[in-house]
Design brief:
It is a single chain. This protein is mostly beta strands. It has one domain: monomeric porin ompg (Porin, Beta Barrel). The chain contains five helices and twelve strands. The protein has a twelve-stranded antiparallel beta barrel. The two termini are 18 Å apart.
Length: 272
C-alpha cells in the first residue's frame, strides 16, 4: 500500500474547491474517501497508472458554514513510472522516495479561494483569491496502518501555510470489500487564519460582524470511515461519512456558523 493510493482519493477535494461555495483548503474535505483502488491488483509492468471516475460530495458551503451543498465531481489521477504524478490534490510533481514503507513527494499545486457570495455570512468580507502553492508530503506504512504529514505554502498569496498530520488504517472485510478509518488534524499559520477567519475594521463595517483577530494554530480535527467495494476487476464504488470539528480561533471566529463540519461522499472509479 502506497500513500499515493490514498492521495488519489484526496485529490477529489481540489476539484471540489474549484466549484463556487466550496471550502478554502484542499485538505479539509475529501480525506474521507477511501483508497478506492486498494482492492485492485497492482498493474505491474505498466508505465502509466490512470484512474478516472465521478461522484458526488455533500459538504458545508464553506469551512465553518452550517448549510450544505451537493456537488458532482470528477476523479482524475495519473502516475507515470511510479515517479511522476498529476492529480488534483498534489498538483504536478515527483515522488522523491518510493518504498513499500515510506513515501516522500514534492510538487506544485493550486489552492482555491473563497467567494463572499458563497453565503450571506460572508457578505462584506470580500473574496479570497486562489493561487499556486508548493507542497511536500510524506507517509510511513506498517502493514495496513499509516501515519502521514503534509505541508502547503503559497507563493506570496494570502493563504500562506497550512499543515496536516494524521493516521489511517485499512481493514479488508472480504476479497471485494474493505473498510477504512482515518483521523487527522490541520494547522494553519497566522496569515492563513487571519485571511479566512479574521475580521478587520473595514470588513466589520461592511458585514456587520464584530472585529476579530485570528491567530495561527491547530484549526480543526477530523475523523471518518469509508467502505470500498470492487464490483468488477477494474471498477470500484466508495461510500464515506465523516465530520470535522473546528478548533481555536477557527471555532471562535464570527465567520464560523457551526463548529461541527459533517460531510458525505459517493464515488465510482475505473482503473486502467
Amino acid at each position: 500500500m502506497h500513500f499515493r493510493r490514498f492521495l488519489a482519493t484526496l485529490g477529489l477535494f481540489a476539484v471540489a474547491a474549484a466549484q463556487p461555495a466550496a471550502a478554502q483548503d484542499i485538505s479539509w474535505s475529501i480525506w474521507t474517501l477511501d483508497d478506492i483502488t486498494a482492492l485492485m491488483p497492482k498493474l505491474d509492468g505498466k508505465d502509466w497508472d490512470i484512474r478516472l471516475g465521478a461522484g458526488t460530495v455533500v459538504v458545508p458551503k464553506y469551512e465553518g458554514a452550517k448549510n450544505f451543498k451537493a456537488m458532482p465531481l470528477p476523479l482524475i489521477d495519473v502516475t507515470w513510472k511510479d515517479r511522476v504524478y498529476l492529480n488534483p490534490v498534489n498538483g504536478a510533481g515527483v515522488y522523491v522516495v518510493d518504498t513499500p514503507e515510506f513515501d516522500l513527494g514534492v510538487g506544485v499545486t493550486y489552492r482555491f479561494g473563497r467567494d463572499q457570495d458563497d453565503s450571506a455570512r460572508l457578505k462584506g468580507l470580500g473574496d479570497i483569491d486562489g493561487g499556486l502553492a508548493g507542497r511536500i508530503f510524506a507517509a510511513y506504512w506498517a502493514g495496513p496502518f499509516s501515519v502521514y504529514a503534509n505541508a502547503t505554502s503559497d507563493f506570496g498569496g494570502r493563504q500562506s501555510a497550512t499543515g496536516e498530520v494524521g493516521a489511517l488504517g485499512l481493514m479488508p472485510l472480504s476479497e471485494k470489500l474493505a473498510l477504512r478509518a482515518t483521523a487527522f488534524t490541520t494547522w494553519a499559520d497566522d496569515r492563513n487564519m487571519e485571511t479566512f477567519y479574521g475580521v478587520t475594521a473595514t470588513q466589520s463595517a461592511k458585514s456587520g460582524l464584530p472585529q476579530f483577530n485570528a491567530k495561527g494554530g491547530f484549526k480543526r480535527a477530523d475523523a471518518a470511515i469509508a467502505l470500498s467495494y470492487r464490483f468488477a476487476p477494474s471498477w470500484s464504488l466508495d461510500l464515506s461519512v465523516g465530520t470535522g470539528y473546528l478548533l481555536g480561533d477557527a471555532a471562535d471566529s464570527p465567520v464560523t456558523e457551526r463548529r461541527w463540519q459533517p460531510l458525505g461522499t459517493a464515488f465510482i472509479a475505473y482503473r486502467f
